[in-house]
Amino acid sequence: MATTSRGRAQDRAKVAGGQDHEVRYEAKKEGVPKETVKKAVKSAGNSRTKVEAEISRH
User: What is the value of pTM for the model shown?
Assistant: First the structure.
């Protein structure tokens, strides 16, 4: 697992739905609006693979 400059663990396998920069990144990557990503996080949880699967389902 990667660490930040402050030495904290960083988990790239999760999407923090409350963090605007993470939602923006995932939305741009998937080519969908931010609201779609937020809904996917709410329904599928914060696992990046589950969020991507939920987005591709719709």
Answer: 0.82
